[in-house]
User: Fold this.
Amino acid sequence: MPARALTGPPSRHYSHLMHYTQLFRSLREAKGLTLEGLAKQARCHRNTVINVESGRPVKFKTIADLMGKMGYPALSDELKSLALLWLEATSGIPFSRKETEASARKTITTYRSTARQAARLLETEAIRANLTVEQINLLVFALRHPETLAILENIRDLVTVVAHEQADDGPQLKVAEDEA
Assistant:
């Protein structure tokens, strides 16, 4: 069963509970367009329109382009409703439910608070450690490229092992001339 969601204010074209495919078809029919008529107007294959209306996987850009060809502006309530319904159908997350919105807002607030706390702590530690701008830039680079850190750690480990072996007078590599 396809996902269903609340759309927005009631309209003569669609109800509160609707799947994006139903809304798309309703909006197409409200413009007096057939499948073939929309395909011709949008300069696409008829199957593209059929894929949207049958719920087959399509990119939202395709849907938005078709909506534009039908005369619905990018910021129209119809396109916004369709976007919400499409996102719900493809993700399985009921974004239009109040409890989902409340949970998302709470998570965002917590994240922002945690990010602010982390930024303050980082600033305090950078000042305490007397880091230079160059050192801070190196830390930022390391954060953005963790694979580089892994390579550097491997090199450091290798250098440490070699240094210990040389300090312990451990096994030395012998060349053929030493055996004669």
Summary: Residues 115 and 121 are 10 Å apart (CA to CA). The mean pLDDT is 82.
